[in-house]
Write a structure and sequence with these properties.
Helix content: 40-55%
Number of strands: 4
Structural class: alpha/beta
Distance between the termini: 17 Å
CATH superfamily: Lumazine/riboflavin synthase
Number of helices: 4
CATH topology: Rossmann fold
Number of domains: 1
Strand order of the largest sheet: 2-1-3-4
Order of helices and strands: EHEHEHEH
CATH architecture: 3-Layer(aba) Sandwich
Oligomer: single chain
Strand content: 15-25%
Length: 154
């Protein structure tokens, strides 16, 4: 491999980046924890609060629709998807998990905008609480790193 190894270590400076967060309200206590951790980490990484937009939607299936609208605007360097899907007794879990994930990926690929997908898909509430803070912080780091990487691409 020749040349600089761009993007592997990742640039984690959020200065000057505009980030939009779309958070599902379903399982709201958990998604608020995700958002709190994400917002705190974005601040730590240097993203100005005035450069962060935080929108909410009813549930995980609605997240991709708003991500698409934001991506089409082109005003954001990266987007973040936050939500929490907890397995129930029916097939609905698989439907929501699969379709929301596919929608998030489709928006990212169709619009060439990085999207940090932190829509948790867990077996129970205990697993969700164990992951919420870490995954919220991870989403912020992924958004910043990928925004910088795409900016640096030739």
């Amino acid at each position: 491999m020749q040349g600089a190894d761009k993007g592997t270590a990742g640039e984690l400076s959020g200065e000057g980046l505009r980030i939009a967060i779309v958070r599902a309200r379903f399982n709201e206590a958990l998604t608020l924890k995700l958002a709190e951790a994400c917002l705190a980490e974005l601040g730590t990484l240097g993203v100005s609060p005035r450069d962060i937009v935080h929108l909410t939607v009813p549930g995980a299936l609605e997240v991709p629709v708003v991500l698409k609208a934001l991506a089409e605007d082109g005003d954001y360097d990266a987007l973040v998807a936050l939500g929490c899907i907890i397995r129930g007794e029916t097939y609905h879990f698989e439907l929501v998990a699969n379709e929301s994930g596919a929608g998030v990926s489709r928006v990212a690929l169709d619009h060439r905008v990085p999207i940090a997908n932190a829509i948790l898909t867990v077996e129970n509430e205990e697993q969700a609480w164990a992951r919420a803070e870490e995954k919220g912080r991870d989403a912020a780091r992924v958004a910043v790193e990928m925004a910088n990487l795409l900016e640096d691409l030739p």
